[in-house]
Each structure stands twice: as structure tokens, then as C-alpha cells.
Specification:
Distance between the termini: 29 Å
Structural class: mainly alpha
Helix content: over 70%
Shape: globular
Largest sheet: none
Radius of gyration: 20 Å
Oligomer: single chain
């Protein structure tokens, strides 16, 4: 029992140490700030366009807030995927993974620490999005709902993509392949939105939309802000994002116990 307790204590300290190191590398010497700057530019352009269309009466104010919020949530979660997909395979290519594996830290603690660093990209993106949502929603009673719902949906999608990105990065040995597979899968998630309207309104079409965490989460935001529904009225749309987040994180942590220097098949 004492040995188990000591091992758990090492694991708790290890993930914090790894997270501190990864956060420092990401925000002080890495690409965290350039990614956040690009994100800010994208939101600025989006806000300008929707504000211009709103002035021309092409968009209502609620639609402008909803569109900007959905872009902020989707792209903010994408930043997490980029960070997570590079976390392990990038260490392999740079030749720094071996030193981590030789440390006494449990494999799972290493993945948790890297996941925390990747999720910090979403936290920063959400903070950056606040003034844009406020500016577009001022004068309409939707800012509080938009901020809270965006945080919930964005956090679920960020957890899903963090788990998925860490899983792919742990399995694949090449950083380029890891990023390519992650982005290809992300594009595949948007496939249900390209179905004809008649198919989307059918039983099978709606099921596909609800299973897809991105489509379901963004649909929930739209219903909440544009249609003025209560948070519980369309809560069923959140089942997909919740299940995806839980499954992705669980599988990533399970595979982390078999993390190897070479990657590939770890069975």
C-alpha cells in the first residue's frame, strides 16, 4: 500500500512538472503566441464582416453573435488539436522524447502534462474571443449566454481534440503524419454538414449530425443564441460532444501507459 501511495504521489507531482515545462515552452519559446495572434486576426476579420453585413441588414444581431462565436469555438478547439498532435511525435523527431521516458515519471503523467499545455491554447483563445462577442452582442441580451455556452461547448470540443491529438501523436512516429491524420479526421467531421437539407432533416441525417461532436456542439450554440432556446431545451445536442470528450481522453490515457520511443504498434 505504501508503494502504491508513493507511486501515486510521484505521478501527481510529475504531471505538474511536465505541464509547467510544456507551458513554458509553448508560450515563451514556442508557437503559442503566433497561433494566438493568427486567431485574433481571424476573429477581427470575421467580426468586421459580420458587423458590415449587420449594418446592411443582411444579418440580425443574434446571427452575428452566433456566427462569430461558432468561428471562435471551432478554431479555438483546432488550436488544441495542433498543440496535442505535435506533443509526442514532435518530441520523437527532435530527439527529446528519450530523456522524458528515462525519467521516473509515469507515462500517463507525461501525457496529462502535455494535454494541460495543449488545453491552455483553448483557454487563451476563449479569453481573446470575449471582447468580440461583447462588441457584437452589446444592446442585446445574449452576451452572457454566448460567453457561458461558448465556454462549455468549446471546452468539450477542446477536450475531445486534445485526447484525439494526443492519441494520434502517441501512436504515430512522424510529426508530419500525426498532424496530417489529425487534420484529415477533423475535415471528415464536417462531412455531415455538407449533406442535402432533406437528408439532414431525415432520421438518419439528424443522427449523424448529433453523433458528430463539432456539428452537434455548434448547432447547440446556434439554437441557444439565434432561436433563444433555454440551455436545457436542446441539451440533447451536447451528448455527442460529451461522449466524444470522455472516450477520446480515456483512450489517450490508456494508450499512454504503452508509450514507446519508436511509436507505431504498441501492442
Amino acid at each position: 500500500m505504501a508503494a502504491v501511495g508513493a507511486q501515486m504521489d510521484v505521478g501527481r507531482r510529475a504531471w505538474k512538472v511536465v505541464a509547467e515545462r510544456e507551458l513554458r515552452d509553448l508560450w515563451l519559446a514556442g508557437r503559442g503566441l503566433p497561433l494566438l495572434l493568427a486567431y485574433s486576426v481571424l476573429l477581427s476579420v470575421t467580426s468586421y464582416l459580420v458587423a458590415a453585413n449587420q449594418a446592411l441588414n443582411f444579418l440580425e444581431q443574434r446571427e452575428a453573435v452566433s456566427l462569430t462565436l461558432q468561428v471562435a469555438v471551432a478554431v479555438g478547439a483546432l488550436l488544441v488539436l495542433l498543440g496535442a498532435a505535435d506533443s509526442v511525435s514532435g518530441e520523437r523527431e527532435r530527439g527529446t522524447l528519450e530523456s522524458l521516458l528515462l525519467s521516473p515519471a509515469p507515462r500517463r503523467a507525461l501525457i496529462i502534462g502535455k494535454g494541460v499545455a495543449a488545453l491552455s491554447l483553448w483557454a487563451a483563445a476563449w479569453i481573446v474571443s470575449l471582447p468580440y462577442v461583447w462588441y457584437l452582442g452589446r444592446g442585446v441580451d445574449v452576451v452572457g449566454v454566448a460567453v457561458a455556452s461558448g465556454l462549455v461547448v468549446g471546452s468539450l470540443l477542446a477536450l475531445f481534440l486534445a485526447g484525439y491529438g494526443l492519441l494520434i501523436s502517441t501512436i504515430l512516429s512522424s510529426n508530419r503524419l500525426s498532424l496530417s491524420v489529425s487534420l484529415f479526421a477533423l475535415l471528415a467531421l464536417y462531412a455531415p454538414t455538407q449533406m442535402p437539407t432533406a437528408v439532414q432533416n431525415s432520421g438518419i441525417g439528424e443522427l449523424l449530425l448529433r453523433v458528430d461532436p463539432f456539428t452537434a456542439g455548434l448547432r447547440y450554440l446556434g439554437n441557444l443564441i439565434i432561436s433563444g432556446h433555454s440551455p436545457s431545451q436542446d441539451a440533447g445536442w451536447l451528448i455527442g460532444p460529451v461522449v466524444a470528450a470522455v472516450v477520446a481522453v480515456t483512450v489517450a490515457l490508456t494508450v499512454a501507459d504503452r508509450l514507446t520511443l519508436a511509436g507505431g504498434d504498441q501492442a
